[in-house]
Amino acid sequence: MKKKKNKKIGDVIGKNKGKSWLYTGIVKDHFFHPRNVLLDETNYQYDGKGIAGNPLCGDIMALWIKVDPKTQKIKDCKWRTYGCASAISATSMLSVMVTEKGGIAVKKALNLKPQQIIERLGGLPELKFHCSVLGLDALKEAINDYLKNKETK
Ligand code: FES
């Protein structure tokens, strides 16, 4: 009888588990060609801004969103990070995910999980899973900032 492999979602470590890492072509593409980066927010009119940091590695992420007031969908998502390759790739993919096909509703975006980003990237090395959380945390901060601003208008 064949033994079933216990593969985790998004785990692309393979046979070198714990010793070496393998990035997928999608991860590399988003690292070398990150989408929706905002280097200077001075003239960027946003509806919500979020900043998140990872106390373990010291990496930090800033993210801005624009929301369509009629549909409550995210129509633009920009970000900038002092972070690692995985954080860059994951946040680049996240920015695509929340704006594609007319944008995702803000309430729905609050329920996004890191696994969904990892799946779209075709996997991440297990030790880098936490890097996919950085952009998501910043997005949730930005949405909460937007909702708070909306209440006070
Ligand atoms: S090592 Fe800090 S986010 Fe990746």
From TrEMBL:
Q: Which SUPFAM superfamilies match?
A: SufE/NifU
The residues covered by the NIF system FeS cluster assembly NifU N-terminal domain are 23-151
Q: Tell me which InterPro entries the record gives.
A: NIF_FeS_clus_asmbl_NifU_N
Extract the signal peptide range.
none
Looking up Pfam families in the UniProt record yields: NifU_N
Q: Which GO terms describe its biological process?
A: iron-sulfur cluster assembly
Q: Which GO terms describe its molecular function?
A: iron ion binding; iron-sulfur cluster binding
The highest taxon in the source lineage is Bacteria
Q: What is this protein called?
A: NIF system FeS cluster assembly NifU N-terminal domain-containing protein
Species for this entry: Candidatus Wolfebacteria bacterium CG1_02_39_135
